[in-house]
Amino acid sequence: MNIVFLHHSTGRCIWEAGVPEWFEDYRIGRDMELEITEKTFPKRFPYGWNNYPFDYWNIWVRHAGPERYLKPAGNVKSRIKTALKRILPGDHPGEPTLEELTKQYQIIIFKHCFPVSDIEADSGSPDVSSSDRKIENYKAQYEELKKKLHEFPETKFIVWTGAALVKRAVTEEKAERARQFFEWVRTEWDQPGDNIFLFDFHQLETEGGLYLKDEYAAGSEDSHPGPDFSKRAASLFCSRIVAVMEGRGDESSVTGE
Prior knowledge:
The protein is built from nine helices and seven strands; from the N terminus they run βααβαααβαβαβαββα. The chain has a single domain, classed as Rossmann fold (3-Layer(aba) Sandwich), CATH 3.40.50. Helix 6 (135-149) runs parallel beside helix 7. By secondary structure, the protein is an alpha/beta fold. The longest helix is centred in the C-terminal third of the chain and has 19 residues, at 227-245. The protein has helices at residues 9-15, 19-27, 53-62, 76-86, 98-104, 135-149, 172-189, 201-206, 227-245; strands at residues 2-7, 35-40, 107-110, 156-160, 196-199, 217-219, 222-225. A five-stranded parallel sheet has the order 2-1-3-4-5, with helices on both faces.
């Protein structure tokens, strides 16, 4: 069983709060081969520090296929040359598509960082190819992502509901839109019986409210999770992974509690 967790900074807070150690303990006394690893996705260079619904759609749906996606910008040849100089030995420029990832991993976990909750008002004209952070665009991108994930029925996917923002970092209207979108993800987009499961991180952070609770945050103006909350969330996250791995994903709690 090979598991990969795709994330940015919020995900790293949770990972480093005890995920590898939790699975080391889990493996003790069990006759099984299990490896869980993490990857920054997409990488800051050359793609850019964005992991919103648009970006997963852009890499996995729009640019699906066996080849990695290397985001073009300006002089493409120059960008590729620069990328090759900056990658680590054994790495590869560009971002892996699902066609690549599903050959390596039986469970793929992905998430968005907290700017995903900074949502503007809808225009009334949803555009799946738009990077504008609006509910209408998010829904269009999630619907296409679901179709794509269903193309790999032997792989299980765990999707985090989006990280929330602290109250000082977002307006009430934007925070309400975020709650509405992730409620839609939980109650309409996610369906029992398929290969997609949720980890309801937004609920853990907000406890049903609009904002990342102050006592769970790294600071009053910092929307990263603090160390105590991260440790608790790491344990719940691991429990949720095991529930999905053992075939209990539809019956067990989406928060891991």
